[in-house]
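REVIEWER CHECKLIST
Item 1: Sequence provided? yes
Item 2: Single chain? yes
Item 3: Sequence as submitted:
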Amino acid sequence: MATQIACRRVYEETSPKDGKRVLVDRVWPRGMRKEDAHLDEWLRDIAPSSELRKWYGHEPSRFTEFRRRYLAELRDAGHREAVEHLRDLAAHDKLLLVTATKDVRHSQAAVLAQWLTKNR
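Item 4: Structure as written out by the authors:
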């Protein structure tokens, strides 16, 4: 796998050192024009289910349980293709997982980055 898998807000400035930029949100970021996102792709199938996302509501006190539930979803057959695609991207280049979430540390992007790094 790539030497680096990181995450950042989609609204932050881009860099040539970003590597592959993949949006991992189910919905498109508010106020962001597609051409301004500078994405290599939008992999909405890797995002948490709508039910999990709504339950979590970006409440940091729920993050531990959100992480547990989201990792269970990632291991489910419904996410297998998206997970394998991300692993393939990470094997060939730096991978930057981008999200619209304000608190990136408590986001699905952070969970994914950590999980992909540990499960090379």
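Item 5: Key structural point noted by reviewer: The first helix runs from residue 34 to 37.
Item 6: Recommendation: ____
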